[in-house]
Amino acid sequence: MQEANGSLDDLKLTDNIKRALIAVLAEFLQCFISRNLVYADFKLENMLYKCEGEKLCVFLGDIGSFEQMGKFNITVTHPPPESLEKRIINSKEVAYYVFGATIAQMYSLDYDLYWENPETKEKKTYREMKNYFYPLFVKGVLKSKIDQEVKKVILNFTAFDPKERAKNSFTSVINYFKKYLK
């Protein structure tokens, strides 16, 4: 069993395994939401992976981080930008955002999504996120060499506007990426 430690680069996963992982993570989150649960600390560091060739097994760690749907305090690694203005927000919006940010993290594209500078611990403001860091993130995703459908998932689920984010569904992600599950 391997732990991702925030990046899948160390695991040397193929693109097809990463795409299969997107389907599995979407299935996890859809299952939780259907049971009115949110995995409040959804991130790569809390997932264990086992790969045998092109076969992937994923196990979630820190399962004490589940909370009832509704409104709760943000504890996730990549909190949505609107939480910089108000600490209590809709948990489904959080689940969508965290899913997109976790996919970005799989491809090492998430640096500009962090609330604070990792070295200085200085917190970013909502205005800085909206006017500077989020546009940098979008530019980085668009310029990356990853699959167009993966880019679409990342950008749709991390949309800066929660109303735009809410238009997404895990079902459409699962339906597209399930072809990579073996």
Topology:
Elements: E1 2-3, H1 15-34, E2 37-39, E3 47-52, E4 55-60, E5 66-68, E6 71-73, E7 88-90, H2 91-106, H3 126-143, H4 148-157, H5 162-165, H6 170-177
Helix pairs in contact: 1-2, 1-6, 2-4
- Percent in strands: 5-15%
> Which structural category fits the helices and strands?
alpha+beta
Basic shape: globular
| CA radius of gyration | 15 Å
Side-by-side strand order of the widest sheet: 1-3-4
Amount of helix: 40-55%
Number of strands: 7
Q: Give the overall average pLDDT.
A: 81
Question: Which parts are unreliable, with pLDDT below 50 for 5 consecutive residues or more?
Answer: none
Q: What is the makeup of the main sheet?
A: 3 strands, antiparallel
| SSE pattern | EHEEEEEEHHHHH
The tally of helices reads 6
Distance between the termini: 19 Å
Short description:
The protein has six helices and seven strands. By secondary structure, it is of the alpha+beta class.
Structure description:
The longest helix is centred in the N-terminal third of the chain and has 20 residues. This protein has a three-stranded antiparallel beta sheet, with helices on one face. The protein is α+β, with helices and mostly antiparallel strands and 182 residues long. The mean pLDDT is 81. It contains six helices and seven strands, in the order βαββββββααααα.
